[in-house]
Amino acid sequence: MGERKGQNLYYPPDYDPKVGGLNKFQGTHALRERARKLHMGILIIRFEMPYNIWCDGCQNHIGMGVRYNAEKKKIGMYYSTPVYQFRMKCHLCDNHFEIKTDPGNLDYVIVSGARRQENRWDPTENGQIVPETKETQKRLFDDAMFKLEHKTGDVDLSKLDKPRLGKLVGRNETVWKDDYEANCSLRRIFRKRRKELEESAISDGLLLNKSSLDINLLPENEEDRNLASLLALRPSRSIEESHKNVRNKILNSPALPSSSGLITSFGGLKKEESLSKNSSLTRNILGITVKRNKEGTTDLCSTEKKADENTKEDIKLSDKCKNNNNREMLKENRTISLVGDYGSSGESSDG
């Protein structure tokens, strides 16, 4: 089938040889779809990438040898050699890049849409043998004196490079004389390094999972180990001190507002409860005695009146004492808490 299609052996029944060839009769080109832009001077060809490049559209790497359907057109001449330009589309994005031939330097040049991955170097920098240029070769063929001078220079250069070449040959013999043993030593080094990398990857993964991080950890060094050994994670306060501070904070914090508008703390309430538990003040405790009449007898009514007056005085004295005690306690505990003055409210209620 392919052979018949390539040679066009099939002729339809209505074919007229007077029209011309079979392609002209059918109104097609021999190159089919590859020649759809031939009227514009563009031919579709299969182009192979001559070197590694970076696409400017997607910033991806395109390796040497990747093939594309490229539009080929002639853009000029270099003496008698035509210069062609190729336009193709990146297979990873919608970007197009153009490459043209450079017959003068026997190379390809990127026009637009991509950039070359620079892997070129000067061979004279690393001691490589550089072939002579065309001009030098022409002078060596035509000029005998130049050929003699060039030969003398080559001899001098070989003398300078002979010690270095001898070292390289000797090193190659000592290292690769027994290629099996050299290969085994390299494999041992690789296995050891691979185990170290696997162990470090496992430890780094555990640390990152524990810390809930997603970063790349750098390898440890001796300075990091010394710094970590100097650090110690110790609490600023002990457990007893922290509990004591929390307890004091609770005692000194406001609990309930008092009737006089002052804020009463837990410490003030405790002291108030201790005062209320104390025994009430009486005449005997205060050293107050009842006066009698001149006859030595006491009138019942006057005694009752005096008793009433004495009890009132006792109440007033006890209230005053309570107030004085409360004021003294307030002065002592001014920095700790505020105690409500319940004596004034008691007086107003008794009155």
TrEMBL record:
<dbReference type="GO" id="GO:0005684">
    <property type="term" value="C:U2-type spliceosomal complex"/>
</dbReference>
<dbReference type="InterPro" id="IPR007590">
    <property type="entry name" value="Saf4/Yju2"/>
</dbReference>
<dbReference type="Pfam" id="PF04502">
    <property type="entry name" value="Saf4_Yju2"/>
</dbReference>
<dbReference type="GO" id="GO:0071014">
    <property type="term" value="C:post-mRNA release spliceosomal complex"/>
</dbReference>
<protein>
    <submittedName>
        <fullName>Coiled-coil domain-containing protein 130-like</fullName>
    </submittedName>
</protein>
<dbReference type="GO" id="GO:0000398">
    <property type="term" value="P:mRNA splicing, via spliceosome"/>
</dbReference>
<comment type="similarity">
    <text>Belongs to the CWC16 family.</text>
</comment>
